[in-house]
Structures are given as structure tokens and as C-alpha cells.
Amino acid sequence: MKILDEIIVYQDDNLLILNKPSLLLSQRDGTGEVSLEDYVEEYLGNKNVKLINRLDKDTTGLIVFGKNEKTIKAMNEIFSDHDQVEKIYLVLVSGQVLEEGSVNAPIRKNFQKHKMVVAPEKSGGKKALTLYKPIEVFDDSSLLEITLKTGRTHQIRVHMSYIRHHVIGDYKYGDFKINNKYKNEFGLSTQFLHSYSLKFNCQNKQFSYLNGKTFVCDLPKNFYEIIKTKKTS
Question: Is-contact 121 106, C-beta < 8 A?
């Protein structure tokens, strides 16, 4: 299948790591819309394949599928322990971020607003820790390297909104004014959020062959062109 041949980053008997494009669901959502999960099942001829790390529809970059039950169980445990796999994202946010830092703020779902929010643990918030450092700083935005130390739904988007450095192109948690600016200037209609790197340090002996390996995928072309233009403007 051509779409998968073009985005495979790594494959062995246990795992399939892909560079997910934007505007493609990671897995089926019941609406009938075709998902990456559908493509993978057809490509491998395997209905037992399972997604390990879900990415939002707009989010691009590294996504992992397990090919068998033993791998799926082990990888779910590995990915829930952020000491066993380091997940790094490249994210363009609003405003100038001049120093590295962290956001340590619990997150829970607000069912009335249909979105995730920062909330105290006593009101149902679950621990969430995000580390960030600037890679490039522009006049109105900053390219950040973000490391997740927990894996809450929409964690990066919620935490960046919480510190008023919204993910550019995020129409759920972001800032309308700068989203509109980047849409008009660059045609950006999706969030600038890219799963860039996975580095393994597995405690499970079966997957010790992954230890020390880092899988990386570059920014999509449209993201790269935005950064290139901002650097020269």
C-alpha cells in the first residue's frame, strides 16, 4: 500500500513505527472515516495489530503499532512509563519563550466544555508534567522541543494554553488571532505539533534490542517552510 510504504520509519516482527501525516485519524472512531489503523491492518493483513501511542488527527509524526498480543501488552506498559521511552515533540507556540521550563499542572476532562482543563487533583485532575525548551525564537512565536513526562489527553495543547503560549494552529485550545495570522500568511490550518523523537530504554528483556535506539522523523514540508521563512524574515 503506497501510503504506508512512504511513511514507514522502522519495522520488525513486533513493531511498526510510522510518520503519521496530518488530517488522518490514528484509529477508528465509529464515524466510518478511514483511519491509519485501517491502512495498517490492510497493509499487514493482520486484524490483531493495535495502536500503542495515539496522536490527534491534526498531529503529525512518530506513531507506533504492535503486531502481536505479547508486544501490545509489553509496549503499553513501556509507553506508560516515561523512563522507558522518551517522547519528544517539536511545537510552534505563540509568543517568545526565552528559557527552558516546565509545566506541572494536573489535567482532567470538562464534560460540559468537551475539552481537557487544568484542575486540582482534589477535583479530579491527574498529574501532568511537561518539559519544554526553546529551539528558535521569532518575533511572534517560538519553536519548542517538548518532552512529555506523563501522557494525558491533549497534554501539550492544554499546558501550553495554560502558560499563554498557545500551540499555533490549535483551534480548540489556541488563540484565534495568531491562528488566523498563520493561516493567512502560510496557509496553516492545522496545529503545529509534531511527534519528533522516540528513544527507548526498555526494562522488558524481550525489547532490550531497542535500548539506546532513537527514532526520528523530520518536520512535514509545510512546517519546515514556515520555520525557514521565519528564520529569514
Answer: yes
Mean pLDDT of the chain: 94
> CB burial class (10 A; 0-12, 13-18, 19+) of residue 163?
middle
In angstroms, the CA 208 to CA 186 distance is 43
CA dist 86 and 84 (Å) reads: 7
Residue 46 CB-half CA count within 13 A: 16
Residue 1, pLDDT > 80, answer: no
- The residues that are catalytic are 56
CB 7 within 8 A of CB 21: yes
- Give the whole-angstrom CA distance, residue 223 versus residue 137: 15
pTM of the model: 0.94
